[in-house]
Design goal:
By secondary structure, the chain is of the alpha/beta class. The protein has helices at residues 10-25, 38-44, 66-83, 95-106, 132-136, 152-162, 180-189, 202-206, 243-254, 260-273, 276-298, 317-321, 325-334, 362-366, 371-386, 391-407; strands at 27-28, 55-56, 59-60, 87-89, 112-116, 138-142, 166-170, 193-197, 219-223, 234-238, 302-303, 312-316, 337-338, 340-342, 356-360. The protein contains 16 helices and 15 strands. The strands form four sheets. Strands 4-10-9-8-7-5-6 form a seven-stranded mixed beta sheet, with helices on both faces. The radius of gyration is 22 Å and the shape is globular. The structure holds pyridoxal-5'-phosphate (PLP). Pyridoxal-5'-phosphate is lined by residues 32, 94-96, 99, 123, 125, 170-172, 197, 199-200, 223.
């Protein structure tokens, strides 16, 4: 990356260079992160950032939309093809705004939503009391069973009792395949709108390696920058009958001008996701996560929800290795492996220092790492946690991580 003009702003230039080095020399295993392609980066840095484009292609509020109409239409068409969708809005600025737009499109203040409990893998925007949406809507959490699957009979009973206006599925730290059909049936039985937030798994759906929820749900929201490997942003996919409400809720309901450079980059990323190479990528993500799960089990780690069916594992490090999630995050950081501490279902410890960690493989899979590298990484994760106070061992592991990272360069 040349940063020919950025060089003149030395503070930002140095930080950008430092960040590139950090990304190159570290093992990025935060489950929600990835590396976009150089083409996506170029589109993000393009002149589309200069343009106001309120409205939709062909129906804008300002002139000069010849090219913005092209990129937004291409993004929509590609997303429709990829997800087999009836209607798509590509304007949500990110995942959290996409969810708020979706709620506001079809619900009234005070309406009830059943959403997955945060400590059982749900997302903050699915009803955590700290969010603004929790002040507007009445969220009722549902949970996973001890075996790790959602208890669908319990969910059905809860839906009958509460009569929610919406049943919301989706997660950021749950690793099992959802029964889309069952959830949508439960919603239909109580007359609720069915919505799923596929922020984490969108790339796996796009790659065709896990089932597509789009046929089953009224509304599907997603981020575009996790497994889907696009720029930061959000998308809403819905049945035609909700199309107008969704579009109006995005603009003028909650947002102003869309970020057209992000939409250009999204169109590029969706084009990449339509290629056979993306199917291969998604399949490798699943393989890598499975190997990680199995190797960590061998080292005595307890895998929450029993196993993984997607791109990440949730590990109870406290009961397995007597180390807290926060301590584990810090010790892995020392050897150059970035992960995040995470609550486990009904965590006896608090959110600031929980029992678990979440480890994901999408970013390192983009770098080209495969089963062989995953086995090494699992070994290092175990060694680092066991030798947590031995700076000499940690320094040696840091060198090994660095050596492997150098073999898999990003942005060559
Ligand atoms: C990441 C995530 C979001 C939020 O996305 P942002 O782009 O950070 O706003 C919403 N829902 C789920 C399930 C997520 O995993």
């Amino acid at each position: 990356m040349s940063y020919k003009f950025l060089k003149k702003d030395s503070k930002i230039f140095k930080a950008a260079q430092g960040e590139l080095k950090r990304q190159q020399e570290g093992m990025e295993m935060v489950a929600s992160e990835n590396y976009v392609s150089p083409a996506v980066l170029e589109a993000l840095g393009s002149v589309f950032t200069n343009k106001y484009s309120e409205g939709l292609p062909g129906k804008r509020y300002y002139g000069g939309q010849t090219y913005t109409d092209i990129i937004e239409s291409v993004a929509i068409e590609r997303a429709k093809k990829l997800f087999d969708a009836e209607h798509v809005n590509v304007q949500p600025l990110s995942g959290a705004p996409a969810n708020l737009i979706a709620y506001s499109a079809v619900l009234q203040p005070g309406d009830k939503i059943l959403g997955m409990d945060l400590s059982h893998g749900g997302h903050l925007t699915h009803g955590h009391p700290a969010t603004f949406s929790a002040k507007i809507y009445k969220f009722i959490p549902y949970k996973t069973s001890a075996a790790g699957l959602i208890d669908y009979d319990d969910l059905a009973a809860l839906a009958k009792k509460e009569k929610p206006k919406m049943i919301l599925a989706g997660f950021s730290a749950y690793t099992r395949q959802l029964d889309y059909k069952r959830i949508s049936q439960i919603a239909a039985e109580v007359g609720a709108i069915s919505m799923i937030d596929i922020a984490h798994i969108a790339g796996l759906v796009a790659g065709g390696v896990i089932p597509n929820p789009v046929p089953y749900f009224d509304i599907v929201t997603t981020t575009t920058h996790k497994t889907l490997r696009g720029p930061r942003g959000g998308m809403i996919i819905c049945k035609e009958k909700f199309a107008k409400q969704i579009d109006k809720a995005a603009f003028p309901g909650l947002q102003g001008g869309p970020h057209m450079n992000n939409i250009a980059a999204l169109a590029v990323a969706l084009g990449e996701a339509l290629l056979p190479s993306f199917k291969k990528y998604a399949a490798q993500v699943l393989k890598n996560a499975k190997v990680l799960e199995q190797e960590l089990k061998k080292y005595g780690f307890k895998i929450i929800f029993g196993q993984t069916d997607n791109h990440m594992v949730l590990v109870d490090v406290f009961s397995s290795k007597n180390i807290t999630g926060k301590e584990a995050e810090i010790v892995l950081d020392k050897i150059g492996i970035t992960i995040n501490k995470n609550m486990i279902p009904d965590d006896p410890r608090g959110p600031s220092d929980p029992s678990g960690v979440r480890i994901g493989v999408p970013a390192i899979t983009t770098r080209g790492m495969k089963e062989k590298e995953i086995r090494l990484i699992a070994k290092w994760i175990n060694e680092a946690m066991e030798a947590r106070n031995n700076e000499k061992i940690l320094a040696r592991l840091r060198k090994e991580v660095l050596k492997l990272c150098k073999k898999f360069p990003i942005y060559k």
